[in-house]
Amino acid sequence: MTNTTTTAHTNIALIKYWGKKDAQLRLPYTDSLSLTLDGYYTTTTTAFSDATHDQIYLNKQLASTKFAQRTKNYLDLVRQKYQVEQHFIVQTDNFVPTAAGLASSASGFAALAGSLNKLLNLDLDNTQLSRLARLGSGSAARSIFGGFVRWYHGNDDETSYAAPINNANDIPIRLLSVVFDTNTKKTTSTTGMEHAVQTSPYFVTWPQIVQQDLQQMLHALDQKDLKLVGQIAENNALAMHALNWTARPAFSYFSADTTDLLAFIRRLRQQGLLAYATIDAGPNVKIISSTDDISVVQQQISQHYPSAQTTILKPGTAIH
């Protein structure tokens, strides 16, 4: 049986995307900017199936109905887009907690798109692959590439894609992933952002905030100013979560631990350590730091939160 295996890494958005102007094409309202991470990744193998339906496996077991349905919806889209009639066997191994706010869907759909590209001999370049991955999960567009990546929001399928930021690869950045909770989050990213877009009175200001933060972040990366990168990323993350706090009714992805850790990170900065927070749609936190300070930051976090799982992450590579 012919099969193809692809690995893609998760990414963390330093300039967030929150809200889609086109749900079907997963076109965001704004650009975003991310860092691909080495320690969390998805490996996906696809093959043609003789059965009359797709067979979806996650971590060596039959996938849950919810996971399988989202994957099948994507496979239907690929079949329609490329006039393919066969069904598939999809085996996904997630080396990252699934649906816990750690971007498993980004690495998952990037790996699936990459594997199907080879299996179906589509011969897509990375820009086209970024667009194909986006149709499964918006942030998957960014996981096609390694290092720092910008996703251009675009106005249609052709113009919404990610591209690497090549002048920033020698910045001595490290991230500390602090995981309090690996359970599936109660509010999915899709549900959360739809609710915030529709009901937060402050959403109208969000595109302007992102545009300003993005330009400052590109400058900080160009100047190799890691402290400024951290400041901008933390401010942008909190602005994104403020949209959820101001939605009607309000909701939050934060737990008590999340809020406590934000205060603790401020205390680490007062001690002279480089430490800034960024938080996606979940209670877990990633701390932006430097190669010099990351070990001390991890030590302090582990002492203060002995039950938290901490992992030091470096910039990750493109799909392979």
From TrEMBL:
Q: Which Enzyme Commission number(s) are listed?
A: 4.1.1.33
Q: Does the keyword Nucleotide-binding apply?
A: yes
Q: A single Gene Ontology molecular function, please?
A: diphosphomevalonate decarboxylase activity
By its UniProt entry, which InterPro entries does this protein fall under?
GHMP_kinase_C_sf (IPR036554), Mev_decarb (IPR005935), Mev_diP_decarb (IPR029765), MVD-like_N (IPR053859), Mvd1_C (IPR041431), Ribosomal_Su5_D2-typ_SF (IPR020568), Ribsml_uS5_D2-typ_fold_subgr (IPR014721)
- Residue span(s) of domain Mvd1 C-terminal: 178-310
* Keyword tags: ATP-binding, Lipid biosynthesis, Lipid metabolism, Lyase, Nucleotide-binding
The organism's superkingdom is given as Bacteria
> Does the keyword field hold DNA-binding?
no
Where does the record place the Diphosphomevalonate decarboxylase-like N-terminal domain?
A: 8-162
**Where in the sequence is the signal peptide annotated?**
none
The text of the family note is: Belongs to the diphosphomevalonate decarboxylase family.
Protein known as: diphosphomevalonate decarboxylase
Gene name?
mvaD
